[in-house]
Amino acid sequence: MIALLVILSACIQCHFIAEAYTGLASPEDVPCLECVCRASTACNDIYECAKKTIDKEYWSLAGENIAGGDDNRKRDSKVNYDNCVKDRICILNTMYYYTNRILRSLNGDVNCDGLVNCADRFAAHVFGQLANRPESKFSIGLSKRFDRCQGHGIKNVTNSWFPKKCSDL
After folding, report:
1. What is the pLDDT of residue 18?
2. Does 116 share its domain with 101?
3. Residue 38 resides in a domain
4. Does 75 lie in the same domain as 60?
5. By residue range, what is the domain housing residue 144?
């Protein structure tokens, strides 16, 4: 029974990683996304975060229609966007897919520390395609809020964040 649960868990995790998956971001990613939201807006409310950081362009780059379903595709994009920023799952998915798209285009590891982690996702959310530029440094307020946030697994971004193009090393 335990072996079956382990196999099932592994299959579910693989499913979340699949590129075409349009369900909720992996449960392991949710604490990071919530920290990204709190740090970038100084607000604990996911809906306020969406109002402040997810505009229609961000949502479009994430892939639109992130809530899924054929019914959503039949509506116009303005209605879908308005509905998305009122839905917790859609907000998390939007952040997840947007940051994934940015990280993929920048080869993932924005600060070249050998890891693709929540700090890289935070940079992708805040700076977009410019996340790996040396001038894309977090303000003290942003980095301290991120450092204080529980659940992202990274410590001391305030003093250790040095974005760069890894090919420059």
Report:
1. 34
2. no
3. no
4. yes
5. 108-169
Judgement on whether residues 156 and 117 belong to the same structural domain of the protein:
yes
102: CB partners within 8 A, 6+ apart: 61, 124, 128, 129, 131
- The single-letter DSSP state of residue 131 is T
Q: Are 22 and 66 in contact (CB under 8 A)?
A: yes
Sorted by sequence, the CB contacts under 8 Å of residue 113 that are 6+ apart come out as none
CA distance 128 to 105: 10
Radius of gyration of the chain (CA): 16
CA distances from 136 to 74, 126, 141, 163 (A): 38, 9, 14, 7
Q: Report yes or no: 80 and 94 within 8 Å, Cβ to Cβ.
A: no
18 domain residue, yes or no: no
Integer Cα distance of 82 and 148 in angstroms: 31
CA-wise closest residue to 123 among 141, 135, 137, 113: 137
83-125 pLDDT, tens digit each:
999 999 999 999 999 999 999 999 888 888 888 889 899 999 9
- Tokens representing residue 150 in the block: 């529980």
Please count the structural domains in the chain.
2
Model-level pTM? 0.77
Helix and strand numbers (H, E) in the chain are 10, 0
